[in-house]
Amino acid sequence: LEVRLVVVLVPSLIFTLWDSVFIDERRPGTCPQLTPGSSGTCVEMCRGDESCPLGQKCCSNGCGHVCQTAV
């Protein structure tokens, strides 16, 4: 169980650190607010605003990240 947890968490941490250090193209606007107590699909569909179409931001859905229209 511990090895599987490390295998899952370490790559995620590396991608998060990579994006925060090397990719910092923040688009104007903010992400829509999450509904309290809800969580989305645990998938990473984007890795920063630049990976989304214009007018959208890479937003947390409560578990993963998805492109959403900026507000």
TrEMBL record:
InterPro entries: Elafin-like_sf, WAP_dom, WAP_four-disulfide_core. The keyword Signal applies. The keyword Transport does not apply. Residues 1-20 form the signal peptide. Keywords: Protease inhibitor, Signal. SUPFAM superfamilies: Elafin-like. GO terms for molecular function: serine-type endopeptidase inhibitor activity. One of its GO terms (biological process) is antibacterial humoral response. One of its GO terms (cellular component) is extracellular space. Pfam families: WAP. Residues 24-71 form the WAP domain. CDD domains: WAP. This is WAP domain-containing protein.
